[in-house]
Amino acid sequence: MKQRVITGTLAGAFYLALLWIGSIPFALLAAAIAVISYLELAEMNKLSAYSPEVLTGALAVAVIVCGEWISPTIFHFIWPKLIVFLALLFVSFNVVTKNRFSFARSAYLFLAVFYISIPFQLLVRIRFDSLALALFVQIIIWTTDSGAYFVGRKLGKNKLAPYISPNKTREGSIGAVIAALLVAALFQLIIGSHLLFGSWLMLFAVALLISLFGQLGDLVESAIKRFYDVKDSGTILPGHGGMLDRFDSLIFVLPLLYVLGFIG
Predict the structure, then answer these.
(1) Which of 88, 117, 122, 243 is most buried, judged by most C-beta within 10 A?
(2) Complete DSSP assignment for 116-142
(3) Angle between helical axes of 103-129 and 72-96 (0-180°, round to 10)
């Protein structure tokens, strides 16, 4: 527990400092986290991080995340071409490697590239648009994680998804939502009269979505880890696991908020 607290405090402070600074430093941090998360996802499927196929995907992740601040106009123009080119490139590796790198693995890496890169690109985008919005999303996710953990430990009796994540409970999930709504109200009061989403009702609706789908994102990653029989996605954060373990909720939440129109 001590190691977990120390790692969480130091890593969290560093992340928040660059989030506050924004601009290129935060974009580079987001790209680094995205690439590491992608490599962790690849290694779960026994794909070497140093293989040409995986490195190709890592490069694509970095380009997609950073493309928003390098040149949004050019990036939006080449975006569809990048998707097509990457799909063709991955399946071409089947021939080059004489099917050592299979079509199934091509599909896995292709999905992994966009599953990881799009949320972090959105994170960079919303930070460029609004520090308050970026902080709100991140704080609600962290509050949800903490609420689920502490309420679950204290009151948890009924399992939420025992075949996927045996330690999660329904009581913890409910506690996480309540904590998220309370912190959302406190956050809005702190930042003042400017309402993040136009009304208090919308603020609570967005906080509810973040909390619920953040928990779903956590369960999705747990399901992936259980399928590949791994405990943590990585070891880069002592006491916490990998980057994917720390950002699984955000990876799920940001695309949802984008689809629903809450972020642009």
Answers:
(1) 117
(2) HHHHHHHHHHHHHH-HHHHHHHHHHHH
(3) 160
| In a shared domain, residues 147 and 81 | no
DSSP symbol at 237: B
Tokens matching residue 144: 């949800």
Please identify, among 94, 129, 164, the residue that sits at the C-terminal boundary of a domain.
129
Alpha-carbon separation of residue 170 from 3, 200, 209, 253 (angstroms):
28, 27, 17, 20
Predicted model pTM: 0.90
pLDDT digits (tens, 9 = 90+) for 121-140: 999 999 988 899 999 999 99
Same-domain check for residues 248 and 148: yes
| Residue type at position 88 | L
The 8-class DSSP code of residue 197 comes to: T
Tokens of 103: 């079509």
Note whether 247 and 171 are same-domain residues: yes
Confidence category of residue 61, pLDDT binned at 50, 70, 90: very high
Secondary structure tally for the chain: helices H, strands E: 9, 2
User: Are the C-beta atoms of residues 152 and 179 closer than 8 Å to each other?
Assistant: no
Strands (E), the chain: 159-161, 165-169
- Tokens 């986290």 belong to 33
149 shares a domain with 114: no
Determine the structural domain holding residue 36 and report its residue range.
Answer: 1-129
